[in-house]
Design a protein that fits this description.
Number of helices: 10
CATH topology: Rossmann fold
Helix content: 25-40%
Shape: globular
CATH class: Alpha Beta
Order of helices and strands: EHEHEHHEHEEHEEEHEEEHEHEH
Number of strands: 14
CATH superfamily: NAD(P)-binding Rossmann-like Domain
Strand order of the largest sheet: 2-1-3-4-5-10
CATH architecture: 3-Layer(aba) Sandwich
Radius of gyration: 19 Å
Structural class: alpha/beta
Length: 281
């Protein structure tokens, strides 16, 4: 199968390309070679004649999106429209990644796949618009919401926490932002499995369970041998930032679990991540 991956230089795109290449013909595109926000991108993507498109490209800087919401819409909504139009023209299914931030975080229970979205920041809004566009243009689609991506290499929340601990810097982490960590090494095989099912629709794929930012920081520090490092618990109100984040945007995996696709508990995933990074105590 010829599979086209957008955002192939990113954390998810690069891993998907590596995992799919042994059995499929994979074409990857990314900036600066192709700007998906340009209308001409639809024609250029269609000309590649993919049989499946996995859309990982996005502007994921939540605070940056708050500072420039128009750019967020161009990248995350209209860029997605051009990808969906290309899929429609060649008859290719689309798997597009979305986010838990399409929800407002005010619900006590975890969000199911078809609970009504209500984004409260420009990043979440831009991704929700992208979801709506895909649904309007393309019946054969998978919309997959994830949260708090953890990937090897680069920098993520756990990397930053451990780096500050090693530097002896004070740690203040919020207790009332709660979601589900998602380990890239677990997500990649789940996405590939889902994309080959033909069971189109909306899915939530995260590691099982939920935790606060403070709880995740404390767990990672303890597992990495920094149990003596204190972490001051604070609230979102004490951590001002350009973007308003949902407090409890916990995703429930019902649809994918019905197909037998379930990711392991987040605690096991974090330990595996630390071990593979050489950081586990």
């Amino acid at each position: 199968m010829h599979i086209l991956i957008t955002g192939v230089k990113g954390q998810m795109g690069s891993r998907l390309a590596a995992a799919l290449s042994p059995e499929h013909a994979v074409t990857g595109i990314d900036l600066p070679e192709l700007d998906l926000s340009e209308p001409s991108a639809a024609d250029r993507l269609a000309a590649l004649r993919p049989e499946l498109v996995i859309h990982c490209a996005a502007w994921t800087d939540v605070d940056g999106c708050a500072r420039d919401p128009d750019r967020a819409l161009r990248a995350n909504a209209y860029g997605t429209r051009h990808v969906a139009l290309a899929c429609r023209r060649v008859g290719a299914p689309l798997l597009a990644l979305s986010t838990n931030e399409v929800f407002d975080g005010r619900q006590a229970r975890p969000y199911l796949e078809y609970d009504p979205p209500n984004p409260i920041n420009p990043y979440g809004y831009s991704k929700w618009v992208g979801e709506q566009i895909v649904r309007e243009l393309l019946p054969e689609h998978y919309l997959v919401r994830i949260s708090w991506l953890i990937a090897r290499g680069g920098s993520n929340f756990i990397h930053r926490i451990l780096a500050r601990a090693r530097e002896g810097a004070p740690l203040r982490v919020v207790t009332n932002e709660i979601a589900c960590p998602t380990y890239a090494e677990d997500l990649v095989p789940a996405l590939i499995r889902l994309a080959l099912t033909g069971h189109y629709g909306t899915y939530h794929l995260t590691n099982a369970g939920s935790v606060s930012r403070w709880g995740l920081a404390r767990f990672a520090l303890d597992a990495a041998g920094h149990a003596d490092v204190p972490v001051e618990p604070i609230t979102l109100a004490q951590y001002p930032r350009p973007s308003t984040v949902p407090e409890r945007a916990v995703l429930a995996n019902h649809a994918a679990a019905h197909l037998g696709i379930v990711l392991r508990p987040w605690q096991d995933a974090v330990r595996a991540f630390l071990a593979e990074e050489g950081l586990l105590a």
